[in-house]
Amino acid sequence: MKVKTILVSQPEPKVENSPYFDLIEKQKVKIDFRPFIHVEGVSSKDVRSQKVDLDDYTAIILTSRNAVDHFFRIAEEMRFKVPDSMKYFCQSEAVAYYLQKYVVYRKRKIYVGKRTFHELCPLIKKYKTEKFLLPSSDKLKSSVPDILDELAVNWKQATFYKTVVSDLSDLRDVYYDILVFFSPSGIQSLLQNFPDFEQNDTRIAVFGNTTIQAATDNGLRVDIKAPTPETPSMTMALEKYIKEANKR
User: Fold this and answer.
1) 212 vs 9, 14, 181, CA distance in Å?
2) Which of 116, 183, 211, 224 has the fewest C-beta atoms lying within 10 Å of its C-beta?
3) The whole model's pTM is what?
4) pLDDT tens per residue across span 138-148
C-alpha cells in the first residue's frame, strides 16, 4: 500500500527547516499535524490541597517548558514573589533558555543538565541541602521519584498541570495512510476519541518503547518504529518506510 497522507499527533513545527517539511518535499506526501493531547493547568487551590507552600522551597526542578510556565503561573496566582535566591535545576539547555521568559538569566542561580533527568542528578546531589520542589504533570515518569529518593535529597513533587485528551471528533471520517504517535497518552486519545477504531490498512508509527508497548497492549499493529540504530528519528523512519512502500 502506497503512502500519500500522514497525520502526526503533535503541533505543527514552528521552524522552517523542520525535517517534516523536507519529507513532504522529497517524498511528495501530505502531512497534517494535530495534537492528540494538550496540557491544562490546575488551579492554585488544587496545588494548595497537595500541601504545597512555595515559601518552603529553595530550589525548583524543571523538566520541561510546561513546568516553567505553570510554576510561574501558580506563583502569580498565589501572589508569591519568587525570591532572587531561588535556584533552578533545568533538565536541558532548552528548558533553561525558556526560563529567560520569566527571569533575568545572568542574575539567577541556574543549573543545567545535558538532556535526560539522570544527567541532571549530579547537580542536584551537589546541592543536597536545598529543599527541592518538582512541579510536574500528572503523567510524571515513574523513574523520576525513584531517582530523587536514591539521591536522598529533601524534595516534593506537586501536580501543576495535567495531560488531557483532545477532542478529535472532526477527524471521524478522515482517513490517513499513517498515524504517528510519540506517547502512550496519544494512543489513549485515539482510542478514547474513536472506541470503534479499526486499523485495517492504516499504518501506525510510534516513537519510544513505552509508546510501542501502549500500542501493542491495545491491539494495534505497529508498522514503523523509532528510534533504531538505522533510523534514530521519526522522520528518518518514515522516509525509509515511504521509500519502500511507494516504489512497489
Assistant:
1) 15, 27, 9
2) 116
3) 0.80
4) 988 888 899 99
